[in-house]
């Protein structure tokens, strides 16, 4: 289902109010993945979400995306309850979401074409975004002829070409090597800077979260709820490799890790106890 509700221009981009999600497990039991979660993402804000493995970060994104409905509570996008997947939402995941049988250009054109943009116009927009991600001369290649970093650039072009006002990113760079990852983070910041879109970026990497975000949200050990929110007062524009070396960055890292580390320990201890 595609949402068509009217957005309120002055409302936060995203709001979760007391949101919970309970899944039925294959054995017939109930599993609470997200519990009583309150989170606000302002328009144009870049929010990074960190939390221990399996705590419910991806589930939180699926609630915002409309792929799943909350069991309790409310999820609002632009002040309007989410009902299905809205056209204003773009996704980037860890896995590449490219059609392997289509060229790079055809992949980037696919979204606008699906939304009814005429071919010539879709091609022009796709080429603009391919140029912005440095892949202008690769438009005729197929995804398997590209490196991991290049495929990720295609994914960014594929997403930004649709002008999403909300960008949901679930560990988008975690499969990349460290250097490519830093480059991609810089590119993301540059691309995002020109759009004014609101971002929710889920990551395991606290350094990546701080380098990118305006606000870092620490989730509890599952079920996920917001433990603490940290505003990141590092100036922009940022380059992730150099911002990491600033004394303020290190200070922020220590502060957030003292909160996150506790939840990571709880998760590990639970894992050890259930294995015993
Ligand atoms: N569709 C589903 N049905 C049943 N349980 C689910 C479903 N989706 C997620 N879960 C469970 O909910 C919990 C939270 O999962 P989720 O993927 O949101 O965590 P995460 O924080 O994103 O994990 P990771 O950091 O490892 O990527 C997990 O215990 C998971 O097994």
UniProtKB/TrEMBL annotation:
<dbReference type="GO" id="GO:0016887">
    <property type="term" value="F:ATP hydrolysis activity"/>
</dbReference>
<feature type="domain" description="ABC transporter">
    <location>
        <begin position="14"/>
        <end position="246"/>
    </location>
</feature>
<keyword id="KW-0328">Glycosyltransferase</keyword>
<dbReference type="InterPro" id="IPR017871">
    <property type="entry name" value="ABC_transporter-like_CS"/>
</dbReference>
<dbReference type="InterPro" id="IPR003593">
    <property type="entry name" value="AAA+_ATPase"/>
</dbReference>
<dbReference type="InterPro" id="IPR003439">
    <property type="entry name" value="ABC_transporter-like_ATP-bd"/>
</dbReference>
<dbReference type="GO" id="GO:0005524">
    <property type="term" value="F:ATP binding"/>
</dbReference>
<keyword id="KW-0547">Nucleotide-binding</keyword>
<dbReference type="InterPro" id="IPR027417">
    <property type="entry name" value="P-loop_NTPase"/>
</dbReference>
<protein>
    <submittedName>
        <fullName>Mannosyltransferase</fullName>
    </submittedName>
</protein>
<keyword id="KW-0067">ATP-binding</keyword>
<dbReference type="GO" id="GO:0016757">
    <property type="term" value="F:glycosyltransferase activity"/>
</dbReference>
<keyword id="KW-0813">Transport</keyword>
<dbReference type="InterPro" id="IPR050166">
    <property type="entry name" value="ABC_transporter_ATP-bind"/>
</dbReference>
<dbReference type="Pfam" id="PF00005">
    <property type="entry name" value="ABC_tran"/>
</dbReference>
<keyword id="KW-0808">Transferase</keyword>
């Amino acid at each position: 289902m595609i949402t068509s509700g009217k957005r309120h221009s002055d409302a936060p981009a995203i709001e979760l109010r007391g949101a919970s999600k309970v899944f039925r497990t294959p054995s017939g039991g109930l599993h609470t993945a997200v519990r009583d979660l309150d989170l606000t993402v302002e328009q144009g804000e870049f929010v990074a979400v960190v939390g221990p493995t399996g705590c419910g970060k991806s589930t939180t994104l699926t609630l915002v995306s409309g792929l799943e409905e909350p069991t309790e509570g409310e999820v609002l996008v632009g002040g309007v309850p989410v009902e299905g997947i809205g056209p204003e939402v773009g996704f980037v995941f860890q896995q590449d979401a490219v059609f392997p049988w289509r060229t790079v250009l055809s992949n980037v054109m696919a979204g606008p074409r699906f939304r009814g943009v005429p071919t010539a116009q879709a091609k022009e927009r796709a080429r603009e975004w391919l140029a912005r991600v440095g892949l202008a001369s690769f438009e005729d290649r197929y995804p398997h002829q590209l490196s991991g970093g290049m495929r990720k650039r295609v994914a960014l072009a594929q997403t930004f070409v649709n002008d999403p006002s909300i960008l949901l990113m679930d560990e988008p760079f975690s499969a990349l090597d460290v250097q490519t990852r830093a480059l991609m983070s810089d590119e993301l910041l540059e691309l995002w800077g020109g759009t004014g879109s609101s971002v929710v970026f889920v990551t395991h990497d606290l350094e990546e979260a701080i380098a990118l975000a305006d606000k870092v949200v620490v989730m509890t050990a599952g079920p996920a709820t917001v433990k603490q929110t940290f505003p990141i007062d590092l100036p922009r524009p940022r380059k992730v490799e150099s911002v990491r070396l600033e004394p303020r960055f290190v200070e922020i890292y220590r502060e957030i890790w003292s909160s996150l580390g506790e939840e990571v320990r709880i998760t590990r201890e639970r894992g050890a106890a259930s294995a015993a």
